[in-house]
Amino acid sequence: MSEPNTPEVPQGEVPVGPYVYDLAASPQRQIVLPKTAPVPSLATYKAEVIAQAAADEAKWQKQLADFEIAKAKAEAEGKDAPKAPVRAVPRKDDNDLKTPWPVEATDPDLLKLQALLGDRVEEVFQQAGELVCQVKKEAILDALRLCRDEVDLRYEMLADASATHYPVGKDFAFSVVYHLTSISRRKRLRLRILIPEGFVPASACEVYPSANWMEREIYDMLGIRFANHPDMTRILCPEDWEGYPLRKEYPTVGWGQRDIDFREDRGGVLNRIAMTTAGQLGINLKQPKAD
Amino acid sequence: MFKNEEMEINLGPQHPSTHGVLRVKLRLDGETVVSCKPVIGYLHRGVEKICENKTYFQGQVWTDRMDYVASISNNLGWAEGVEKLFGIEVPRRAKYIRTLLTEQNRLASHLLWLATHALDIGAMTVFLYAFREREYLLDLFEAFCGARLTTTAFRIGGLREDLPPGFIKQAQVFQDRFLDCVDEYETLLTENRIWKKRTIGVARLNAEDCIALGVTGPVLRAAGVPYDIRKTFPYAAYAEMDFEIPTRTEADTYARYLVRLAEMRQSHRIIQQCLDGLPEGPVMAKIPKILKSEVNEIYHAIEAPKGELGYYFVGEKGGTMPYRMHVRAPSFVNLQALPKMVEGRLLADVIAAIGTLDVVLGEIDR
């Protein structure tokens, strides 16, 4: 006669694994590469808008044609005419979102920059009140120097430099952005270059010394090297770190220490503890959970 | 008999005066610093990578863990950055409460700086006085959002809750007392001969170097440049506030101390204006349950207690998570100036320089 509170331990054959969490199959471990390369751009946006309008128009024409056919059919069969189609109006959401779309550049700074750099400027536009200027990848140092020294521009400070990985970009793999601040004129400007894998852009350290650590961070996180940088070494990760963490193909669960797999537990200690706990909780590990 | 070799020593990463896990490689000639190289990364957790795999609502929790003594400022930067990305307009009352809490957080951050910086230099008395007031502020944060340091105070689109009952009364009690407390710290330090000897002329960084090295915040203002994002690019409710930007021209540790104390007085003014002019109304905008972004990139910077705190977001079409998130941490950029400040100076000044930069390693390493 056992004590009333003693839990029943299942007798007989001990079930085998796998009943531990499979790390290799965990969702964080799976690398899902992005499907698009979201580089904000006025030209792309315009093309999208035109394509969307054309698609809407085509859909509407098809609806009209279908209606004509259905009407003719109904008349031939002597039935009531079908309802005329109504053109769908885009639904207006009841919320306070005012999505900032890219608009044409009207700011004098961007126009000035475009006039000075000529065909080395790839695109200028404004979005969410921010000035964006995309230049050719070889011309970035000239553009930065111009922004700092030109009397009408005077962007004295490099506030931030950063980069983004676009694994599915067509002829580029990274974008590098420089956020410039003009303290005297109260303005901000973003310079952007798109570079392919392996391209070595010129370092901005010569123009803006503050780029030193920012570019080291970009190199550490994304693996973009900069030419003529005084100290192109890793900054946040250890020197012997493998891979570049902010690339999209880098998983969020690391290799190595996190891979403590219960199946490596040769002595079976952990398995036995897990079994006992499961038995005490009255869980039958052999039975798959009913859906 | 006498050796003339240079000696290489490591300051940190387990040294109390480095405020965390900062390691500084120093080459010394006697007591003079020949070269100085900060080594960072001991607290790197990959916040940017993590936030790229979290939704816009979840990511804010990670901003608390960056600058953990001024987490409300970080929350504000995140929330406003995401609002800019989506084009959300926040109600006016929410803006006021955000401004109020951010300024109180600035006080808390400056008080912690004052306490530890004075402790590093050797003025131990200030520590407990400063912590007394900071404790009161942390209690107020706890009343508002249930946490003292890792606050996650705001939501995208406004606030989760209005101010709790009695908050304004308690904040007013603090307001009535605080200016006297600042005077108290000043009596302990401002005319203190030892304090002046240890700070005047120490760790100078002139305006040109500050701007070239990207240094912002009180360090830049102590060099005579009145650059404060609250005035230059106003956000939250700062456009409606009446306050001044304190500046000095000496550009040394003592000037930065005076600038920060003056900033505390200005913060007190802003808080008073928020409390007096708190508008009525809702605290949350109408936003969809799931935020899906368009292709867009934004850079939103706010004036954190340490300097310019910028968030860079890249949005993907239909994405619920940021395609790319980057933080421009003020301490990260400010720490670059450390070699310039200490090379050719004495070893003991390195401690003062680290203290006066007011670095937080959680934000540098991210």
Write a concise synopsis of the structure shown.
The complex is a heterodimer of chains A (291) and B (366). Chain A is of the alpha+beta class. In chain A, 28% of the residues lie in helices and 14% in strands.
Characterization of this structure:
The complex is a heterodimer of chains A (291) and B (366). Chain A is of the alpha+beta class. Helices cover 28% and strands 14% of the residues of chain A. Chain A has a six-stranded mixed beta sheet with strand order 1-2-3-6-5-4. About 3% of the residues of chain A have low confidence. Chain B has 366 residues and is mostly helical. Chain B has 15 helices and six strands. The mean pLDDT of chain B is 89. Chains A and B meet through strand 4, strand 5 and helix 4 of A and helix 1, helix 3, strand 4, strand 5 and strand 6 of B.
What features would you highlight for this structure?
heterodimer, A: 291 residues, alpha+beta, Beta Polymerase, domain 2, six-stranded mixed sheet, 5 helices, 6 strands, flat, B: 366 residues, mainly alpha, Cytochrome-c3 Hydrogenase, chain B, three-stranded antiparallel sheet, 15 helices, 48% helix, globular
